């Protein structure tokens, strides 16, 4: 592989923003990709994947390169040289790479790889938390979460079917494979910019991880029901629910952020999902008005996101211990307050994209002991580990509210 100067500069500039200015990797990368209209798909994937790689392996590469925080531009060139050396890419004779100790890099890598928190490149506190919560499973799970995530599409059944979509994507140069256990899913055989396809613009699919595609079906919705998606965000699962409801009935999408719901509306138009109504939670009245009214409720709760580190590696560096404690309080509050929207005999799913029991089954256990929780019983629950499924880590629990006697 030959390195192109302008692409490498885009990577270095992006990393400065991610590491030093607290910016989110996905946002920075999409900004960097707009730098040069002439870049082809290979150039774009070099910028995106190299940036993600160096974010993912930040601690390991920094240790190898003898770099400490705050990381400046010169340090980043050293870390980039580590990335190249470990990938077997020949360093060009640019001044930035003068005196790179290639041999020493390989030796340091072998030596540091003996220690898990360095090998897997993770802060001490997070490694300790993962081990405390997942025990023996943490080792393989962590390794799995450091692998690049596959790109999975969800067929929008409101507009097409799997085979028609598959054929349409082939026409546009994207080969996909079916995933047996996921009826609406197609996995890209090669990464590519599927957002530029006509199929996407026409709303024939959404990009959605295979594990995430299991959540809406778990809620057991039917056309004609009143369904509430209480933490709808930009609507990944709302759109799936609309398709499961065949656009019939009422689907109320809530969130505390109006801008996310605005994006949801835009996506719903593209997807041809017509039964969605959005409401911003700007006071407790919004929830109160809906008490005892929902046939089905989804709480796709805010969480640490530890199940989705493979697509969001900068969470390793942005997460802080006090956030973990705070988000767990919020999760319990949401269960207690929002479960009141379920009508007697109705059902709710509590879901997270975390793999920590303290955000998942333990939250549910605690909830079931509260006054509100005593009204519910668990019908089924599932923890998806990335190391077992090959996709994102997720948790989902289906609970049923007692019918009135
Ligand atoms: C895991 S994300 C939801 C992702 C979304 N369901 C999807 O499938 O694309 C959690 C969402 O909860 C929202 N949120 C945070 N606190 C909330 C609260 N108190 N009530 C409702 N939503 C909240 C966040 O804004 C975020 O959009």
UniProtKB/TrEMBL annotation:
Annotated active site: 353 (nucleophile)
Domain SAM-dependent MTase RsmB/NOP-type: 141-402
Highest taxon of the lineage: Bacteria
InterPro entries: MeTrfase_RsmB-F_NOP2_cat (IPR049560), MeTrfase_RsmB-F_NOP2_dom (IPR001678), RCMT (IPR023267), RsmB-like_ferredoxin (IPR054728), SAM-dependent_MTases_sf (IPR029063)
GO molecular function, one term: RNA binding
Gene Ontology biological process terms in this record: RNA methylation
Chain residues that bind S-adenosyl-L-methionine: 255, 282, 300
Record keywords, A-Z: Methyltransferase, RNA-binding, S-adenosyl-L-methionine, Transferase
Similarity comment text for this entry: Belongs to the class I-like SAM-binding methyltransferase superfamily. RsmB/NOP family.
PANTHER family xref list: NOP2 YEAST -RELATED NOL1/NOP2/FMU SUN DOMAIN-CONTAINING, RIBOSOMAL RNA SMALL SUBUNIT METHYLTRANSFERASE B-RELATED
Protein name: 16S rRNA (Cytosine967-C5)-methyltransferase
